[in-house]
Each structure stands twice: as structure tokens, then as C-alpha cells.
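Re: export button greyed out
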Amino acid sequence: MKTMSLARSRQHIADTWPTSVPAILALAVAGVALLNAYGSDYVTTVAIGVATYAVLGLGLNVVMGYTGLLDMGYAAFFAIGAYTSAICGVHLGLDFFLSIPIAIAVTGLAGVIIGYPTLRLRPDYLAIVTIGFGELVRTVANNWDYVGASRGLYPLPIPELFGFEFHSPIRQALLAFVLLAVAVVVVNRLGRSHIGRAWRAIRDDDFVTESVGLPTLRLKIGAYVAGGAVGALAGAIFAARSVAIDPTNFELMLSVQLIMVVVLGGLGSTVGVLGASLVFVALPEILRSIQDYRLLVFSIAVIVLIELRPRGLVPERTTIPPAAALAATPPPRTVVPAATAPPAAAGTAVATPPRATGLRPDPADGPAGTPLLQVRAVSKRFAGLVALDSVDLTVAAGQVIGIIGPNGAGKSTLVNAITGVHRCTSGEVVLGGRNITRLAPHRIARLGVSRSFQSTRLIDQMTVLDNVTVAAYATSGLGLRDALFAPGRVRRRDFVSSARAWHQLDQVGLADAAARQASELSYADRRRVEFARAMIMEPRLLILDEPAAGMNPAEKAELTRLLRAVAASGVAVLLIEHDMPLVTAAADEVVVLDQGRVLATGTPEQVLALPEVIEAYLGHRTDDEESTDDDPVR
Amino acid sequence: METLAQVLIIGFTVGSFYALVALGYTMVYGIVRLINFAHGDLVMVASFIGWVMLQQAWIRDMPALPGIIVAAGVSIVGTALLSLTLLRFLYARLIGRSTLGFLLVTLSVAFALEEIVKLVFGAREQSYPNYALATETITVAGVTFAGMDLVVIGLAGVLMAGMIWFAQRTMTGAAMRALAIDHDAARLMGINVNVLIAAAFVIGAALAAVTGVLSGVYYGRISFDMGFALGLKAFTAAVVGGIGNIGGAVLGGLVIGVLEAVVQGYLAGAWSDAFIFGALILVLYIRPQGILGERVAVRA
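Workaround output, generated via the alternate export path:
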């Protein structure tokens, strides 16, 4: 018993020290003490350079390593931070330590102004806009007399705290290392929080991340601004230890070198960035002869690294809580009755009647039978092509509605219109009395609309457990403030989210696969993970796009039972499917789409008997065929 | 005293350079939806190949124009081969698999090329031979033009018209436009995607080579770090005009060139980069698809 608790506390320490202020500060102070004891002024100055570079690398790592956004003008944040701090000191006579929050605020504002228009667009646009932004800032600094134009801003006042002046290299090193410690704690706390998981999900597939209820645009802007704020901190360190700053300190080349530091540090790794900064700054000091070849060597190193590991550039370093601990934590809400879980879990419990579930029984939804989703005269045109033509559809809580139709009938477009992926050309979508036509996909998801994808979409570079946990983002009740100031609460709540995810995986028989990479799963298992992910969002409306594709008859039978059970618990289900026997067995009502229009609505039996439905599927009967109607061969 | 006409001529000349480079970006982007950051540095490599050729005794013995044409021809072949080699050994395996990887590799290739050229030829500028044409002027209706301005604009105009004809009137051009719209559908129609990607890289490299040699002759000086900034502005031009759209690259190049010339001619010259990148950010706010572009805000 004792060894186990010892192991557990060791695990606890391993989990918590990277986000602990005292632990990181102690390391920083120990570093300064070492410099004081053994380092010359020269070594100390180089160490300050390493610390400045490291802070910059850590900030860029949030943008590039965590979130996968290429920022090519990161030096702009460094410049804005340094100049703001310097302006506060030189022109406004403000205290240095007061200038730090001002520098961070100004940089953050710049980040929002640049990030908002750009991050809505394709990811590579950020690269080009940030280059432009970097050059813009430098050009302004180079020409604006208020900041000294090309001469730069000087003399910068010496920072002073309660009479303690940071005038000697070792004192400046103390300041730089303490600020480095702050940066380390901030990026570690963000990276290990629910926000960090959301960023990694965005890095791999922002479309899926949005569809499971995460505000991806806001998260991307958040990453860009957070990275910028850390850059401002580096700017302040730079201003503190310099006599003057001028525009040559903030050239494009600096941004490029920082990108190389982050890539060579392993994209996403704090320790890697610290190590790469040390190599990048200190090595050329030791080996003067490589000074001239530094850029060449580092460019080639980046090329080799990426070429050798194009996919696995970002090694995922997530620690999965032990299964036993997850299993021991009762989920706050049971979602799918065990009796109706898919095949793999089917053997465990057989005839338990469906339990009452915690699926948000929204009072506004009314009793089963009240319309939950109403699609009213929705049309969608893509440049002349009419994909949906005035489609009407009503789904009530507890009902399974099947949507069938030949390929190209507009089934997936309808799903995309309901879930906010496509903006309807006309018409409206109402969920539980609320018009959701113009809401962003993540808002619709948060209102209780979960979906699966026709071709399964998981976040391949994440573990199976994280794939489900990430969808609990909206319901975790955690915010940015928790991530920054309450790592303990984040860990506890996150553990609860993981436990919920684990139970969802258990329901679909995949608890054993929780720690595996999603990319390793078979096709059928990927569908199961998608189902678990949809269910952890506690949907009111579940939309499944061809869930039976690739399933064998036994699995299809299980799926049918599962759908009926989910519906019985009060969830409305929209089932898009080609498999007629499945639709007939599972659906209360069937809607037939053809060429974007609703061709027929009714019970499966009624609809499948209609001649126009048969025609839409099998084609028009020719006169020739009609004349041979009596042919005995038929 | 610079008149508006002269400012515009300079704008069109510089804009023609931007447009030729922007065409290279846009062709590759149209097919693979990726930015090739090394493209600007192909211009630099091309102008160095041209410079090396023009130092050769047998070319120096030729009259000016044939000499330049031979040098440009060698430069086109060399740059295209370099581009194909990079595509084959470094880029191909990243296309469609890792966007960030592609961007980072092309960025690193850009700086590796610069560093290698710096190692071989030194950090200082190299001079192209002086040509009479480069200093000759023509006066039309009271406006004095440099002869070279007209050569650059004329040659660029012919190449751009050729590109537009190629895209609109040839099978290969049609296949490229199809690829830009839908990779899978195009593949099913029997279009060999890899061949077209290679073709786009070769055409882009050839246009970069023409730009490199032409700018060497026009400005008289080249240096190892001339490519990246040029590439940056050309890419800005492609985005402003509508990336992936050949007409957009031409229009964007001319718009950026004229904007730069007007700012330098009438306002503070040192601020021109701020205007260009400010314009880029403004365009992305108001019309993210660019002047002639398709919608780029992807949500699906």
C-alpha cells in the first residue's frame, strides 16, 4: 500500500511541478545563483540572451507548436512589447514594472486586430499577413520620430524595484530569469489545460473541433494573442537590459530564427524550446567559426527534421490517467444504457431496461412528440447549383427520422445546413423554439446538436480518450482564468471529463483502446469513437451520417437497438442512411430527398411503396420495359 | 520633376516584376493550395545564373541582346531544374500531408539558398554589365521614358498574355483550372495531378528566371538577399489580386507596383512597405478573396 501511495505522490509531483510557480521560480533563481557563483559578466550576458530567446520561443510555441499556426512576424510582438515598455520609461516616466502589463495589453490588442480578420481565412494566410505585420511594425518604428526612428529610443531607464536597481548583468539576469519562469509557468499551464487540448485538436482538424462545440476562431485568436503577450514579456526583458532599442533588433530574420528554434525544439515542447534556445544562442558564442554558417546549418536541420518526420512532427505527449482510476470515478451522468451498447460490449449486460439518462431534458423541449427541430423552407445554392430546394423537416424529441435519397440528393448538404457548416441561402432552422439558422457550428453544437461524419473524422494525432474528452470542453465549466490561475481545479475537472469520456468509450466497448492513437483504430472502431464523442455532448438532437457504412448485419442490428434506446431516452435522431432494412427497422418516419427537394414523407413502409420513390432510386421505366410487363421472366 | 505619367511608368515596371513572380505563386497555389516561400529566392538564384553566364567570354563576345537571351535561356533551364529537384526530393512528400511542414520546408529552403549563394558569391552586390538600352530614354508627348521600362513592361505583358491564353485555351491550362476547383473530380477525369504540379513548378520557375535576369539588367545590381522581399511583395500582389487566379496575379502585381511608385513619388518613400502591407491587411478585412478571387473562407 505504501509503495502505491508513494508512486502516486511521485506521479502527482511529476504532473504538477511544471505548472507550479514556486518550483519553476526556484529553478530560475538556482540558475541565477549558479551564474553568480561561476559565470563571468560575459557568460551572464549570454545567459540573458538565451533567456530572452527562450521567452520568445515559448510564446511562438503557443501559436505554432500548440495550435499549428504559422506566425512569420512574431518579432512584431517582441518589438511592440519592447517599444511600449521603452516609451513608458522614456516618454511617460512610468515605472518599468508598471510598463510590463501595459506592454502586454498593447500587444494583445495588436494581436486581436491582426488575428481576427486573418484567422477566419485559410491557415496559410496567417503566415503571409504576419510577415506583412512584422514588416509594417518595423517600418513604422524605423520612420516614426516619436520612437526615435532609425536612431532608436534611448536612454532607457534602469528598472528599479523598492530601491533595488537592476543595473549589473547578474541583477538583470535575475530579472530575465524570473520573467522566463513566469513565461514557463504560463505556457505550461495553458498547454496542459483543457485549452491546450483544444488547441492541439484545432492543429489537427479545426473543422471537427468546431463541430463538437469548441469556439475555434476564438481559440485561435486566443493562441495568437497569448503568444503575443509572452512575446511582449520578452520585449520588456530586452528593454530592461538594454541602453537603447532600435528597429534593427526586430527584423524578419529574428522571426525566422525563432521559427527554427521552435521547430528544432520539437514543436509543442517547453523543454525542447529551452534547449534549442540555448543551442541557438550559446553555441555560436562558443564556436565562433560556425557564426557565419548558423542560418545555413539551422535551415538544413529544419529541412532534414521535417522530411524525416513529415506526419509525426509533433509527438503527442499526453499522459492518460490510469484506467482503474477513471473507472472508479462514477460518471455524473449515464448516457447510453449498457444493454444497448454496440456488439463489443453487448455481452456484458443483457436485459437491463433503459435507465433514465442525463440527456439534458430541456423543459422547453416539452414531452416526447413536441417538435424539437424544425427545418422550414431551407434552400442552399452553390453558384447556380441548387443543392437544397425549399426543404421542410420536423423532428420531435424521442423520434428517429430517416433521411434517404440517391447520391447527390442533398442529404449531407442538409446536415451541413442544420449544423451551421453551410449558411442557408434562404429558409430557417429552429431548434427547441430558437432560430439557429445563422449561428456558428460550435454554438449549434452547444445547444445540443451532435453529429457524426459520413467519412469518419477523428483527431488522428490524439489519443482515443482525448478525442472524446475534447468534446466535453463546453460542459467542463472551465475558463481561461482557471487555466492560468487554478491548475489544480483544471486537473480535477479535467479528470472528471476524462472519466466521463472513459465511460462513454466503455459503453461502446472501446475502454481498452483509450490510450491508443486514434489513427491506429479500425474503421468500425472509429465510428464507435465518433458515437462516444457525440454522446458525451449530451445531445438533444443526434445526427448520424451513414453510420452503418461498412458494418456487418450483426453490427447493424446492434446499431438499430442503440438508436431506438437513444431515442427512448428523449433524444431526437436524424439518421441519414442508404441501408433500407436498417432505416425501416430504426426509423419512425422517413423523408425522401431527391435533387434537393423533399419527394415524400411517411412511415418507411408507406414511403418505400411510392412509385416516385422507386423511380428516384431505380430510374425511369422505359416504354419498352412497360410493354414487357407481363413477361414471365420478370 | 517627376510627372504622374513617369510615376505610373515606374509603377507598371515594378508591378510587372511583381506580377511575373506572383504568377508563379498563384499557379502552384491554384493546384496544391500551399505557399512556396522559396519562390522569391528562385528569382535570386536565376539572376545569379544569368550573371555567371554573362561573365563568360564567349557570351561577352556576342552582341548585347543575343547574349542576354542566351544567358536568360540557361537561367530558365537551370532554375526550372532546381525547382523540379526541390519538388521531387523535398516538397512532393509533404504536399497534401503536412501544410505546416511544407511551409516550413520552403521557408528553410529559401534561407538555405540565400546562404549558399552568399557563401559562393559573397555578401556584396554583383554588377550586371552596362547596356546602352538600360540608359536610353524615349520622349513621347513630353514624357520621358527609360527604354528599359518599356522593354520590361512589354515583355511582361507578352508573358502575362501568354499565361492567360495558356490557362484559358489549352488542355493543360483547363486541367489546371479543374484541379484548382476539385482535386478528386479532376483526378477521376484522368488528370495526372503530379505531372500538373510539376508543370506549375516549372512554369513558375521559368517566369522567376525571366524576372531574375531582367531585373539584373534593369537595376544593374544583384545580391543574395534580393529574393525574399521581392517574393513577399509578389505574394502580397497575388493575394490582393485573388490567389489562384492568373488574371488576379497580373492585376495585383500592377496594383502593388503602382501603389509603391505613387507612395515613393508623392509621399514618404521610406513608408512604402508600410502602405503595401497595410493594404494587404485592409484587403483581407474587406474582401478576403482578393479583387478577382473566389471565396477562400473555408468552413467545410
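Residues 334-365, 625-634 of chain A have pLDDT under 50 and may be disordered. The button fix ships in the next patch.
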